[in-house]
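Q: What does the assembled structure look like for these inputs?
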Amino acid sequence: MSTNDPSQTNGMILVVDDTIANLRLLIALLEAAGYSANGAADGETALMICENKPPELILLDVRMPEMDGFEVCHRLKLNEKTRNIPVIFISALDDVDDKVKGFEVGAVDYITKPFRSNEVLARVSSHISLFRMRQEIEQANIKLRELDKLKSLFIASMSHELRTPLNSIIGFSCILLQGISGELSPQQKDDVQRINRSGKHLLDLISEVIDISKIEAGRVEVSPQQVSLQELIQEAVDNMLPMAKEKNMVIKIRTDASPQIVTDHKYLLQCLLNLLSNAIKYSVQGTVQIHVHSENDHIQIAVEDNGIGISEENITRVFDAFERLENHIKLQAGGTGLGLYLTKKIVTELLQGKIDAKSQENVGSTFSLYIPHTLAARQVDTDELNQTESSRPL
Ligand SMILES: Nc1ncnc2c1ncn2[C@@H]1O[C@H](COP(=O)(O)OP(=O)(O)O)[C@@H](O)[C@H]1O
Ligand SMILES: [Mg+2]
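A:
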C-alpha cells in the first residue's frame, strides 16, 4: 500500500489487522509521520511479507479470524529471518490476559484500541530506535569477532617470523660472549650482553603475548591427564634450581598430600614455574616454600617466599597486564609484567581454578593456586592456531 521508498523514511512498518478501517487509519497515521507503512489483513499474508521483505516493526492485531496475532507472532519467532523483528500487539482496552500472553509469545509492547495517535507514534518511534540500535550493536559485534579472529591469526602467524630472527640474535650474541669468534674488549662485552638481555626479554614478551592471545581467542587445547603432583612440583623445582642457586636461595616442598590429579600437565607446570620464578626474583635471599594442601574438591598449591613483599594497596594490581610495581629490585629482576596476568588466565580459563595472593611488605608473599582434582575435558576449536608452546618460566 505504501508508495514511499523505505530508505528515505523513518522506518518500515507492517500493520496487520483484519479490520480494514483500522488498517487504513494506522497506515495513514504512520505515513503522515514519515514512516513507510505496509498492510496485511490476515496472518498468512503478514508472514509472507515478513519473509520476503522483513520490516523494522510490526503492529499486530491480536484478534483475527483463522490465524490470530499470537500464532503469527509465534511463527515469526520460530523463523531465523523474522525472529528479531519487534512486534507491538494491538489489543482491546483492558484485556490484561491478551497483554500478558502477547509478552509471553515475544512481543515488545502493546497498543490498546481505540488508538491515541500520539501514543502510537511514541511507541513506534521508541521501538524503531531500539531495533536499529540493536542491529548496530549486532553488526559491531560481528565485526569485532572478525577482527579478534584476525588479530589472533596475525599474532599466531607472526610467532614464527619473530622468533626465528630473535633466536639468531640471542644465539649469536651468546657465541660472541663465549669468545668463540675472538676475544671481546670489556666495552664490547658489555654491549653484547645488552643485546643478549634485550633479545631474551623480547622473546619472553612475544611468547607471553602469543599465549594470551590464543587463550583469549579460545584456541588453546587443554589435555586433562593423570598427573602426579609430586612429580610435577619436583620438575618445576628442578627447573628453577639454577636461578635459586644464583641467589643462594633454597626451595623446599612441604606437602600434606601428594595426590594424583587429573589436569593439564603443561599448563599447571607453566603456572608453577611462573610463581617460583617470581618468588626468587622478588627476594633478596631466603627460602621459597611450596605447600600442597588437599581439600574436598580442590588442591591448593601455595608458593611462599620471604622476599620484598607487596603492599596492601598494590596487591590486586599484580594480576593486571603490564603491571610491574615500583621497588628497588625491579630493574635487576627484569620482566614483562605479563607473567601473573597470563598465569591467572591459564588458571581460570584453562584449568578451571583460581589464584590469589597474600603479602606483606618486607615480610614476603604467598601466591596460591586452587585447582580441581579433576579437570573436565572441554570441546575445543582445533585449527591452525593450535600449535603447542613449550613450558617456560615467565
Ligand atoms: N613473589 C612476589 N613478591 C613480590 N612482588 C611480586 C611477586 N610476584 C610478583 N610481584 C610483583 O608483581 C609484578 C607482576 O608480576 P609478573 O606479572 O610476574 O611480572 P614480571 O615478573 O614480569 O614483572 C612484578 O613486577 C612484581 O612487582
Ligand atoms: Mg613474573
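The longest helix spans residues 117-177.
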